[in-house]
Amino acid sequence: MDAIERLGIVEEIRRVMARYVRYADHHRWRDLAELFTPNGAFTPHKPDGSVWLRMEGREQIAATVGGSNTPDDTLIHHLFSDEIDVDSAGEARGVFAMEDIIIRPEGAEVSADFPFKGMHGYGHYRARFVKAGDSWQIADLVQTRLRLDFTY
Fold first, then answer.
1. Strand 74-88's sheet: what is its strand order?
2. Is the entire prediction scored with pTM above 0.85?
3. What are the 10-residue block averages of pLDDT along the chain, 152 residues in total?
4. Domain count, the chain
């Protein structure tokens, strides 16, 4: 693989992750889940390094991520620097610095699982990508946290 092919793959993967955060911000859970392989996994961690939960498959990812937010929540996700390693024409890995913010509307009910009114998080996404047909998909996504700040 030459440098131009490698750069093309890197750009395609950047666009997958850009769609991921845009779909999250716009509550497009089905579209977000379709960025994963059919049996793809998403594992967010707590700042102490322990696993918060593990989701496997598009259905569980869409239901779980979408179920943790209300339609009135404002979601803001940012991706910053990325390190993408192309292993082959069909596999790649990446690390993306990230920040996310959740703002619940005034007077919104809070649940036992998510008892906060606002959250501001910092961390990284570590991902494994595979080429499926003409598009790149997320096979495994791990979110690690450096810090989570909550308002109650």
1. 55-56, 36-44, 135-151, 118-132, 91-103, 74-88
2. yes
3. 96 98 98 98 97 97 91 96 98 98 87 84 98 97 97 91
4. 1
pLDDT of the residue at 109:
77
Contact 13, 5 (CB under 8 A): no
| CA–CA separation, 107 and 59 (whole Å) | 30
CATH number of the CATH domain containing 140: 3.10.450.50
- Identify the domain containing residue 79 by its residue range: 3-151
Instruction: Judge whether 147 and 48 are in contact, CB under 8 Å.
Output: no
Structure tokens at 95: 């690390």
Tokens at residue 119, please? 């959250």
Find residue 90's DSSP bridge partners: none
Alpha carbon 120 to its chain centroid, in Å, reads: 15
First to last CA, the chain: 52
